[in-house]
Design brief:
Elements: H1 6-16, E1 25-27, H2 29-35, E2 39-42, H3 53-62, H4 66-71, E3 73-76, H5 80-92, E4 96-100, H6 106-114, E5 118-121, H7 126-140, E6 143-144, H8 151-167, E7 173-177, H9 182-194, E8 199-205, H10 210-217, H11 244-251, E9 254-258, H12 260-272, H13 284-290, E10 300-303, H14 311-327
Helix pairs in contact: 1-3, 1-8, 3-5, 3-8, 5-6, 8-9, 9-11, 12-13, 12-14
Length: 328
Amino acid sequence: MQTVPLHDIEAARQRIAARIVATPTVFSVSLSERFGLPVHLKLEQRQTTGSFKLRGASNAVASLNAEDKARGVVAASTGNHGRALAHAARLEGVRAVICMSKLVPANKVEEIRRLGAEIRIVGDSQDDAQVEAERLAADEGLVMVPPFDDPAIIAGQGTLGLEMVEAVPDVATVLVQLSGGGLASGVAAAVKGLKPSAKVIGISMERGAAMKASLDAGHPVQVEELPTLADSLGGGIGLDNRLTFAMCRDLLDDVVLLSEEEIAAGIVHAYRQEREIVEGAGAVGIAALLAGKVEPAGPTILILSGRNIDMGLHRDIVCGSAKKERAA
């Protein structure tokens, strides 16, 4: 199996220490009381750009040599990777071009533009955006910075796992967002490298979960990309996937999928009980517990991976839930 070793993740931590926030891991009173065991939240939505993606992007850009930095970088993104790469590139004075599909929420597109990146909106899927990114890399000589299937990206995301095990040394269960697999494989490599007995469970949505479909098929496959509250988890894993498919296959203990209603319930719980604003993807760990789709064993950590939700949508979800409760 091709993999990213623990020492690469530890090296990434040193490389990006001054470029990111080491986010807190906090005890959740509400979830711990509900499930009768310690449940902790890794508040990665408080990262500088509002999601964990800054870790991988910072490590990737910081790892480039001077010649590659002069060429500039390009990436396909569902939003958060593009925002992180735009921020990391701006810190280094590097040109950044971000390719996105029409499904990426407008608030994420505008934030990437604000950070100074050039934007290309192409097609109706992450795969369409990836084709455009590859064209720009070939035609303009830009350096491709993939959103997940890249050793520097995986190592950067894996620094989350190092911090979580340090915060909760007796962790037994980790719930991690699963999309292209950069976060899941990096966190699983770090957690199992330090705590082999811990279980790491990938959480995704029912609508277009490419990694789950690929794992079920035994090889990377394409799936239709559909609108979902967990828009950050959309997109394919690449038919020529080099790293994350194998790492997720070999390191994850289970994968569970959530309905849109379950994801919405996670967003509402995060806001009402934890006083945290998170996007759909950021809420899937909470949602999986609330839906009974994961039975945690021992101290558990959930990652709140991002906060970059349109606030009008957030208000509608929270207020809509309140209206339903009053009607009942």
